[in-house]
Structures are given as structure tokens and as C-alpha cells.
Amino acid sequence: MARVLLILFMALWMLPVSGPARAGEIVGALSQNRVSLTANFSGSEILIFGAIRHEGATEDAAPFDVIIVIEGPRQPVAIWRKDRRMGIWMNVESVNMASVPSFYAVATSAPLSQILSAEQDAQHRISASHAIRAAQATGDVEDRALFTSALMRIRERAEQYLTLDRWVYLDREILFRANVRLPANLTEGAYTTRMYLVREGEVVNQFRTAIFVRKEGIERWLHQLAYDQPLVYGLLSLALALVAGWGASAAFRYIRH
Fold it and tell me: What is the pLDDT of residue 111?
């Protein structure tokens, strides 16, 4: 791994610089950019690593920090609020959001609030609260912020939204690395990975790549069958249920006798 990081740093250092010198540049890579969802998939750990190129830095310059964001495919979400009515808990109000990340992780070399200004956070939409974009919520409710904060709490408990302070290891402000574990309940699609180079609360430079997650094997075949030929999928499911029921019944009869 040390050799890979060194090669990455040398490649960054040799990149041509056009125009005025920048405060710094960041380049990164992944230990793997493809994750296969199979029947026994229980999560996957991704190593994110890279190097920082210094340009025109002085000894008294403020140190660099690194922020890594992994964002899963966006999808529509309905958030419901339950209330007790006539002794029964039921859904009474809802808010719809058209585009919410299915997974969101923010890993930093120091606490996010200490290394990034609120203005820069909002501009680059780095923290999960900005990524959700609460303004998109629609519904006939008085306080939509309650629903978006509830969504945040639910996904944090499910480990779908992660805040990983001091998770990025910086080596002499030249090399960096972080291990981020993707949970078992991943949504199929592209997981955008953004790496930000930060100094004095400002984003200096950024680098983007992606992790591609897709079903493989029989899981992929069943998924495609369900969407492409739902009638065949339904009949196949019914046949399997009948066979399983008959098999269980025959096994019980054999045991009794």
C-alpha cells in the first residue's frame, strides 16, 4: 500500500500546472471501485487513499485537512408521522422528497465544524443535512423540518448515514487514507466519492470518482426478471411457494410415521 501511495503522489507531483499556482491539489483512488451484491453479502470495506500536491506553500501557511464524502444513488422518499387516534397508532401526516441519497458518509481528518465554514458547507453541500435539501420537501404539514430531521435520525440508526470525524489519516500533509465500511443494505447504482482539500475553512480543491454497486449471479437474474417480466416472476414465485409448502407437508407426514 505504501508503494501505491508513493506512485500516486509522484504522478500528482508531475502533473503540469497551467495558469497561476494553486494553494494545493488533491488526487485520490479506491481499493476497489466495484461491489457485487450476492446472497451472502454482508457489507464491504473500501480503502480511500490519495496524495496532496503543494503549490507555493510557505512554512507559516495553515495546514491542510481532507474531507471524503460517499453519496449513494438518490431516490424518492415518503416520510410519515404517526399519532395515536382512538387508541390506535396510525399514519396521519406525510412529506414527500423527490431526491434523497440512499447512503451518505462524511469522513474527515478533524471535526467538520472545525475545518469547514458553514458557508462552504452549504455551497458544496458536504454535510448530510445539506445533501438532503430539505427545501424540496412537499406536503400539507406545518413544520417540514421535523420530518427531514426524523429521516436523518432513522438513517443514522440504520448506519445509512455516517459521520466519521477524525477518520481520515493525514501523513505529513502529503498522503491520506481512510477506511469506510459500506453496509449490507446497499442500493444498486453508482456511489459518488468526493474528496475535498480544505484550508482555513475553505475548499481549495476537490477530486471525484465513483464506486459501482450491482447485483450479481442469481440475484441479478431475479431482479431483472421481476422488472422485465413481472408475470413470469409472479408465477415462478407462486410455484416455488407451492413446492415449498408441499415439501414441508410431506416432511411432517414422514416424521409422524
Answer: 92
Partners of 138 in the β-ladder: 96
pLDDT at 58 over 60: no
Q: What is the spatial distance between Cα 148 and Cα 159, in angstroms, rounded to a whole number?
A: 16
Q: Give the predicted TM-score (pTM) of the model.
A: 0.74
Beta strand 202-215 with 34-37 is parallel
Task: Give the tens place of pLDDT for each residue, 157-170.
Answer: 888 899 999 999 99
Determine how many CB atoms are found less than 10 A away from the CB of residue 101.
24
List C-alpha distances in Å: 91 to 77, 131, 134, 139, 253: 15, 26, 21, 14, 44
81 three-class SS: strand
C-alpha to C-alpha distance for 106 and 127, rounded to whole angstroms: 7
| Alpha-carbon distances of 184 from 76, 170, 190, rounded to whole Å | 20, 28, 16
Per-residue pLDDT of 188-225, as tens digits, reads 889 999 999 999 889 999 999 999 988 765 555 555 65
| Inter-residue contact 115 to 167 (CB < 8 Å) | no
Tell me phi and psi for residue 44, to 5 degrees.
-145, 140
Whole-number pLDDT of residue 22: 53
Give residue 178's identity as a one-letter amino acid code: A
Q: What are phi and psi of 104, to 5 degrees?
A: -155, 120
pLDDT tier at 232, thresholds 50, 70, 90: low
Quick check: helix, strand or coil at residue 3?
helix
Give the CA angle between residues 11, 24, 163 to the nearest 5°: 95
Pairing of the two strands 175-182 and 44-54:
antiparallel
In the numeric block, the cell 500546472 is attached to 17
Cell of residue 232, nine digits: 413470469
